[in-house]
Amino acid sequence: MVSCEALFRCRISELDAYSRKQTLRDELQEEALPHELFWTASWIFIFGAAQASTSRVEQFVGTDVPRKRSFSRQVHIGGTPLNSVTLAPTMNPTPRKYYSIRTGRNPLAGKIDLPTFLKLFRSLFTRFEDEGYFQESLGFECVDSGFIPGELGHDMEGALLLELRKSGLWPVRAKLDEYTEDDIFDIIEFLHDHCSKPVERTWHGWSDCGWHCQTFNTPEGQADFRERVNRILEIYQTGYELSHDGEILALPETGLEPLLEAPIPSADPDNINARVEAARLKFRRHKSSLEDRRDAIRDLADVLEYLRPELRSVLTTQDESDLFNIANNFAIRHHNDKQKADYDKPIWYSWLFYYYLATIHAALRLIARGKG
C-alpha cells in the first residue's frame, strides 16, 4: 500500500518536472517537513489537485508594480504559497453577432431596457467579484475569518454614503434589482474606481470559500472592467460607454465616432485642447441637459473666437462671418431680444456641436498649413 508520504513525494516530482522549479523538492530533500505542515500539504496535493494543479498556474506580465496584501491563513513550503496562481492578461475579442441578432429576428437585438441591463450586469458583477477584482478596495468574506476589509474599511454602506451620497445600495448582489438607472450608473463608476486585477492569488478550498488575492494591478483591472461593462452599456437605451477616466458618457452619433476620438492638432493645451475636451465631456455626460449642451457649444465657439485672428489669414470675410453667425445670433453665446431661439434645440444642438468641433479641426489644419 502506498503511503501518503510517497504520494506526496510523487506529486512534488510531477510539479517539479512540469515547472522546472526546485523549491518544493529541495525543501523536502534537505529538511523533513514539520508533522502538521506535512499533513496539511499532503491533503492539499492529493485531494485538492483541482485547485493546486499546474493547469491553474498562469503568467501575468504587467507594466505597473503590483501592491502587496497579506493574509495570515496561507500555508507555505519553502516560501511558496500552496494553491497559488498568477493570472494571465485577459484576451477579449470583439463579440460576434449571432444569427437572430444579425437578421433582426431577436426581440433583444436592438436596445435593451433597464431590467434586462440589470440582469446582464448581475452576471458581470458576480464574475468580477468571484475572481477577486474588488478585494483590494472592498474586501471579501472568508468562511474562516469572516469579513476581511479592504482599503475602504469595514463599513461599506458608510463608504458608499460618503462617496455617492446614497444609502441602501450595498451589498450589490442583494440590492441590484432595486436600482434605478442613476443608481446603477453610480455603482458602475464607483466599482471602476475600486477595481484592481488580481496578479497573485490563493485558492481557499474549505467550504468552497474562493480566492484570496495578495497582489493587484489597478490599470489592468479597470481596463478589464471597462471592456466588459461597455458591452452592455452600448446596447442599453440610446447607448453609453464607460470612459477611460471612469465616467459614463453617451455614445456619439453613428458615423461621428472618429471625430470625437481624433486628437486636436494643437500645441496650446490650455486655450484649445483642454477647452475642447471639457466641451466633449459636457456634451456627452449621462443625462446632460440642454443647458449643458448649449454650454458645450459655447465653449467650442469660444475656441474659434480665440483662433479668429489667425483664421482671418486663411478664410474669406464672408466665411468668417458665417462661422460666428449661428453662435452670436441663435441664443448660444448671447441672451437678448434679438436672438433667434424658436428652433428644435435637441436636434440643432447636436448638429451645432459636431459642426463646431469639425470646424476647429479644419481651422487648426488650415492655420498650420498657412504657417508651413
Biggest β-sheet: count, sense, barrel?
4 strands, antiparallel
Helices, by number, come to 16
| Count of the domains | 3
Mean of pLDDT: 76
Strand order of the largest sheet: 1-8-7-4
Percent of residues in helices comes to 40-55%
User: Stretches where pLDDT falls below 50 for ≥5 residues?
Assistant: 10-66, 68-80
Please tell me how large the radius of gyration is. 28 Å
Secondary structure tally: strands:
10
Terminus-to-terminus distance: 87 Å
SSE string, helix = H, strand = E? Answer: HHHHEEEEHHHEEHHHEEHEEHHHHH
Overall 3D geometry?
A: elongated
Q: Proportion of β residues?
A: 5-15%
Class by SSE composition = alpha+beta
Compact summary:
Helix content is 51%, strand content 10%. The protein has 372 residues and is α+β, with helices and mostly antiparallel strands.
Structural description of this entry:
α1 crosses α3 (35-47) and α6 (114-130) packs antiparallel against α11. Strands 1-8-7-4 form a four-stranded antiparallel sheet. Helix content is 51%, strand content 10%. The protein folds into three domains: 1-53, no CATH class; 100-248, no CATH class; 252-371. It has 16 helices and ten strands. The relative contact order is 0.08. β7 and β8 (210-217) form a beta hairpin. The chain is an alpha+beta fold and 372 residues long. The protein has helices at residues 4-19, 23-30, 35-47, 49-52, 99-102, 114-130, 135-138, 156-164, 172-175, 181-193, 218-233, 257-261, 269-284, 290-311, 317-329, 345-371, and strands spanning 67-68, 76-77, 80-81, 84-86, 140-142, 146-148, 197-204, 210-217, 240-242, 248-250.
